[in-house]
Amino acid sequence: MISKAQFEKEIELIISNAIREDVGEGDHSSLACIPDTAKGKAKLLVKDEGILAGVEFAKQVFAYVDPTLEIEVLLNDGDQIKYGDIAFYVHGSSQSILKAERLVLNAMQRMSAIATKTNHFVSLLEGTGTKVLDTRKTTPGIRALEKWAVKIGGGVNHRFALYDMIMLKDNHIDFAGGIDEAIELTKMYLKNNNLDLKIIVEARDLEEINAILKAGGVYRILIDNFNYEDTKKAVELIGDKCLTESSGGINEETIRKYAECGVDYISSGALTHSVYNLDLSLKAV
Hints:
Blueprint: H1 4-23, H2 28-33, E1 39-46, E2 50-51, H3 55-65, E3 70-73, E4 80-81, E5 86-93, H4 94-124, E6 131-133, H5 143-152, E7 166-168, H6 170-176, H7 179-192, E8 199-203, H8 206-215, E9 220-224, H9 228-238, E10 243-247, H10 255-259, E11 265-267, H11 270-273, E12 280-284
Parallel strand pairs: 6-11, 7-8, 8-9, 9-10, 10-11
Antiparallel strand pairs: 1-5, 1-12, 2-4, 3-5
């Protein structure tokens, strides 16, 4: 994953762009009927069940919109929530609260949904030692938020983007002329460009597993779309030579069985691309 400083920069960009998109030249609805001197208070009301995520992000949004807004946090990121809970109160300029409202809700509803789904997947693997990974199958423009939510839910972040890890998948291998060629060219590229990036290579069958191991220098092997029996064989072949990751259509019905094959990680795009937002509201009090 990227550095903390890079991650924080991504969050800043998300906030500034989202406010630009939503507010533009001004929130005319609020400007039209609420005096700029008016003060108010609102609560973040939970109308669903799951894992709360996005409180820390909401604090950053409010601070960006109006540094004088005050937040009273009652529930934190990662807490279990139920209908009727109040996550926080926000006090200050009524116009500022309304300006920040939609971004806060959009982000927290989606982040909470992702954290809830991730937490469910993590619970299914309890006792196996296998960790749940996210993917790059994220909503364009808000990847940092979605990967943040995965961590809140107990999952582990995969690479952040194309630039912070090497991942040689089937198309890379085929375009390069084979596994040996793809790995060798990658090693040369990293050396010539003085880059220190981990290498993950996807395997489509046991023969490719052997080829990857023979080439060496690989951080993790992606055991893609294998059945249970072949996954077990792959794990045995790999041993402690590098880390292992299963992927390819794994869902809540199959994830435990793949974990029991002995893989270190299971990656799932469903954590971020197939969720329904949790129901949260920001209500004046």
